[in-house]
User: What shape does this take?
Amino acid sequence: MQCLEYPFDSNYIISKKKKIKRELLESNKSFIEKKIAILGGSTTNDIKLILELFLLNYGIKPSFYESEYNQYYQDAMFPNKELEEFSPDIIYIHTTNRNITTYPILKDTKEAIDALIEAEYSKFSGMWERLHEVYHCPLIQNNFEMPFYRLLGNKDASDIHGAVNFLTRLNMKFYEYAQSHDNFYICDINYISADYGLKEWADTFYYHMYKYALSVPAIPYLSFNVANIIKSIFGKNKKGFVLDLDNTLWGGVIGDDGVDNIVLGPEESEGQVYSEFQNYIKSHQQLGIILNIDSKNDYENAIAGINHPDSVFKEEDFIKIEANWDPKDRNFVNIANALNLLPESLVFIDDNPAERHIVTEQLPGVCAPNIGQVQEYIKNIDRSGFFEVTTISEDDAKRNEMYVENAKRQALEASFSDYNEYLLSLEMKGTIKAFEPVYMARIAQLTNKSNQFNVTTKRYTQAEIEEVAASDEYITLYGKLEDRFGDNGVVSVVIGHIIEDVCHVDLWIMSCRVLKRDMEQAMMDGLVKKCKDKGISTIKGYYYPTQKNGMVKELFKVFGFSKIEEDDKNNTIWEFKIREDYENQNKVISVEY
Assistant: This one.
């Protein structure tokens, strides 16, 4: 919904929140449902209501537990039947500098201040440890915003007695904990409040009147950031950019002005701004964000601009370049199809509002932010949180390389008339094993990102994946695939729940970048082998249809399962009796089990 995309009108969202919620619930979104506990050190009601809107907009339908006013510590540290029965999927701890009751005074020694910091940190870290132990779910913890006044003026930052210094040191302790603990995330209200404007954020009227630790108009900015962390945890991040060229990556129209006259580079101020923007976009490749071009241009002009002497890009930085005179929405679909991605996985960046409108109208779910003037491009894209980072896996860092390798595979495929001969020519090697600690983050990430090849669309946090892996009641399998062009990493995951002598397939997912390479057959063979080892005679598969997973509707039928049940919503249950003479279905991948 456009009113919930950055830059948004905070007052409109607050005043129209009921109307916005109704429209979101009436939309055709396919929601995943999640339970979120908010443990607040101040009033949190409107934070909850606005957070709900942003989550609904991301396709997450939340239900909430909300602590009583300033009862965050009690709810965390003491038995709480209501919270335990709620069984949250995520806990958000909304504390602020208002919850620090004791600051250093000028007569305190260094040792006394160190002890004060340690006591405050121990209070929080003890709370986090207990929450992890009891609820086994991700935690989101605010850091501390800066105080709204400085007793020591500028020296407040450097002197150990200053509140700024004290809060900065506490924040560093929080960051060190985050760096050494999985499933723990910092909501950086220190940055958010500075970006918003600390004077406005810390308007004391709202605290003394309503016990809000931030001004009410700032609440959408906080809630939006919390929602971005949550949608990232549950795999709702975008995966790449689709970029316009003229007046987006450089100033001017290359077809009219010529490559020598486009505005780019150090000679003039506007050119410097475009260069800075190019550097910003290219830096996303470190995160595995893929870059593509969709431009109304002659292909030769597009390539000439990309290879301009002052351009930070080269042609090979882009996975797919569509530069022609076709409608941009058609090119956008072509790019998504070539990448085996859904269009809504990609963000459209274009300076032209008419082009943005056409793409978003024709391709529901695609984000095309209002990027404003060139000097605002970075701010408006960066604040949108399309690629909010909660984990960085090895596969993320290699994603661009993987897509380049995939393009080489497609070129090779085109040279073969027999598809089986093409598969054999790839010289594929697979690894299919039970979940291992080194891959837990990637496995959790894949369970939340896979929408098309996903029979049940169940989502798992890393903590839940680790629990499943440690239990004798489950069969777990991850699949890696490499070939002559490179390593695709972990591309498939199966979780089977063992009940008596039946294995119930709770999850079966695969990355779309390895479709039609027999990896699904190899995973089936691995599942049968594991079941045989455990004396299991029957596998039951489940298919729950969504708007996105139609490609696996007949997956179990392909493997030889029999359909035994179907309801009025087209949910199906399949059964496979394991024969002693089961013959492997994969014929082209050499697999290590």
Remarks:
- Residues 420 and 588 are 8 Å apart (CA to CA).
- The mean pLDDT is 94.
